[in-house]
Amino acid sequence: MKFTEKTRNIVVERSKGNCELCGSAVNNPNLHHRKPRGMGGTKNPASCSPANAMFLHFQCHEWVESNRTKSYEMGYLVRQTEESNKKPVLHHSGWVLLNDDGSITTLDPAWVPEGKPVPRSFLQQNG
Question: pTM of the predicted model, to two decimals?
Answer without folding.
Answer: 0.82
